[in-house]
Amino acid sequence: MKIKVLWVGKSRDPWIKDAIDEYAGRIRRYSLLELVDIRDEKGAEAEEMRSRECERLQKQIPPGATLILLDERGEQLDSQGLASFVGKQRDSGVGELIFIIGGAYGFSEEFRRRGKLIALSKMTFTHQMVRAFLLEQIYRAFTILNGEPYHH
After folding, report:
1. How many helices (H) and strands (E) does the chain have?
2. Whose CA is closest to 97, among 113, 84, 111, 85?
């Protein structure tokens, strides 16, 4: 199974880039991984920004892929729950599992209906931090699935 992570905007802070590189390297021990920056929209009303960003995201989604959208209104999973979800997708033969982090104004309502919505926390984090947190949790999911001690 291939993991693809799409996010709107560039990763700017060097320490975030370092964390992304670290956990991307760890994930690649278990799965193919592709990280894709999607250009963010500037200078428009929030709804128009969401719409344009979601159009760009859509171009990166192949037919048949399973989508997980990070959304503050999504289901709260603990690390075991995410591992279970990833394991079920892998075991059911899903070819590509795509995690998506939207822009500053999130996803359009139409786009939100396309995938499973999950929230990393009830707290608010910067979109930059969420990238590193998500990759760490994906890595943790694989270590849980493989019975490795990282989770403890």
Report:
1. 5, 5
2. 85
Contact status, residue 41 vs residue 49, Cβ threshold 8 Å: yes
| Domain boundaries of the chain, sorted by first residue | 2-151
Answer whether residue 152 shows pLDDT above 80.
no
Greatest alpha-carbon span in the chain:
48
Q: In what order do the strands lie in the sheet with 66-76?
A: 32-38, 2-8, 96-101, 66-76, 116-119
Q: CA torsion sign, 108 to 110 to 114 to 118? A: positive
User: How much is the pTM?
Assistant: 0.95
Pick the CATH number of 2-151 from 3.30.420.40, 3.40.50.2000, 3.40.1280.10, 3.30.200.20: 3.40.1280.10
Strand partners, 38: 8
* CB-based burial label for 119 (10 Å; 0-12, 13-18, 19+): middle
In angstroms, how far is CA 140 from the centroid of its own chain? 14
What are the tens digits of pLDDT across the range 44-61?
899 999 999 999 999 999
| Cα torsion 89, 90, 93, 95: sign | positive
